[in-house]
């Protein structure tokens, strides 16, 4: 809200009902995300935009499991691989996914990751 106030003070043209999610997101995409399990509140929608528009892999802190459900539903048609650091073959699965371009969901990440 602070920067929006400054934009108006500097008389930079801006929609009066500007929102981050509607600027970078597509309402049809947001509706699809909601059907796939993403909550419809503004915070979740903004996070959905960040996840889908980012150039790198997003880190999602998800204590309620909502993001995991959404990602699983959103990427299931692309052969999503779900790995956990406790799995003995997680590194092989990760390497294969990188090689073949399939999405990977690494869940239950702790504070530190093994650099291998």
Structure at a glance:
This protein has 116 residues and is mainly α.
Keywords:
mainly alpha, 116 residues, 7% strand
Q: If you had to describe this structure to a student in words, what would you say it looks like?
A:
The protein is mostly helical and 116 residues long. 47% of the residues lie in helices and 7% in strands. It contains six helices and two strands; from the N terminus they run αααααβαβ. The protein has a two-stranded parallel sheet with strand order 1-2. Strand 1, helix 6 and strand 2 (104-107) form a beta-alpha-beta unit. It is elongated.
Shape: elongated
As residue ranges, the low-confidence spans are none
- Main beta-sheet strand count, sense and barrel state: 2 strands, parallel
Q: Structural class, please?
A: mainly alpha
Taken as a percent bin, the fraction of beta residues is 5-15%
Neighbour order of strands in the largest sheet: 1-2
Counting DSSP H or I runs of 4 or more residues, the number of helices is 6
Evaluate the radius of gyration.
Answer: 18 Å
